[in-house]
Every structure is written in structure tokens, then in C-alpha cells.
UniProtKB/TrEMBL annotation:
Domain of life, per lineage: Bacteria
Protein name per its UniProtKB record: Secreted protein
Species this protein is from: Corynebacterium efficiens (strain DSM 44549 / YS-314 / AJ 12310 / JCM 11189 / NBRC 100395)
Length: 158
């Protein structure tokens, strides 16, 4: 019986340490956001969390999760900004006054993200910095060398 109680205490302490680590490390490094999956009605489904930009991925960490991994990962090429709006009267009760809500679509789902002006600016800049898949450079090494030689002869070089 003592073994079971000791094991439960150790597990509880481990959960508290993990929760504290996640809370303090993510809060200091990310952008605060409130996110919900659509379709939802009213004020249901909103979850507080943090966004962290990691190259072409945007990682969402729920505030009340113990997992050391991101809860949702958005890839920049699969995210599309559909709309912006102000919070409704009911939503404004639990959101700050400078919050804007962005309606986004990813390959998996549609979501709304509520964030302040700085967060919106960072998200939009991250999204717009993506290279368009249609303009990807498909130049081979042989084509590059051929163009290099052509450019050298135009400048009077041999």
C-alpha cells in the first residue's frame, strides 16, 4: 500500500514540475493566443495558449496541457488567412480590448485565432514570408552553369 501511495505522490510531483516547466518556458517565448476549431457557436471552444514560430511551422501549445510537444502544428504552405473580425460582445468579456480574431484555414481544419495587434502583425508577416509554390526555383546545376557562362560572355568576359 505504501508503494502505491509513494508512486502516486511521485507521479503527481512529476506532473506539477512538467506543468510549471511548460507554463514558464512557453509563456516567455511565444505569442499569447486564444484559439478554437470551427465550426463553433457563441463563445464555446476557445482555448488559451501560446504560438511559437519555428521556421515554416507554427506551433500552438495549449495553456492547460502537460505534453512537452506542440498540440497543433501549422505548416506555412497549408495556412490561408480567410478573414479578420472584431470580437463579439460575448467574446469581449474574456478577451482584451485590443484583440482581433483571425479566421484561418489549414489543410486539416478551419480555426479562429484571437490575438493582439502585435501577434496579428507577426502572424501575417510569417504567413506572407512563405515562398509561393508556383515560383519555386527548379534550376538544375547544369542550367545554372549554362546561364553563368552566358552572363559572363555578355559582360565581355571569356
Amino acid at each position: 500500500m505504501e508503494f502505491i501511495i509513494t508512486a502516486l505522490v511521485i507521479i503527481a510531483l512529476l506532473a506539477v514540475v512538467l506543468a510549471a516547466w511548460r507554463f514558464f518556458t512557453l509563456r516567455s517565448r511565444g505569442t499569447t493566443v486564444i484559439l478554437r476549431r470551427l465550426p463553433q457557436t457563441g463563445v464555446h471552444g476557445w482555448r488559451h495558449g501560446s504560438l511559437r514560430y519555428n521556421g515554416n511551422d507554427l506551433e500552438y501549445f495549449k495553456l492547460r496541457s502537460l505534453s512537452p510537444m506542440a498540440d497543433i502544428i501549422f505548416n506555412r504552405r497549408s495556412v490561408e488567412l480567410l478573414n479578420r473580425r472584431e470580437p463579439t460582445t460575448d467574446e469581449a468579456v474574456f478577451m482584451s480590448s485590443d484583440t482581433r480574431i483571425l479566421h484561418v484555414r489549414s489543410k486539416d481544419a478551419e480555426m479562429e485565432m484571437a490575438m493582439d495587434g502585435y501577434g496579428e502583425m507577426a502572424f501575417t508577416a510569417w504567413l506572407e514570408a512563405a515562398r509561393d509554390a508556383r515560383t519555386e526555383n527548379t534550376l538544375t546545376a547544369a542550367d545554372f552553369l549554362k546561364n553563368q557562362n552566358r552572363n559572363d560572355t555578355r559582360k565581355g568576359r571569356s
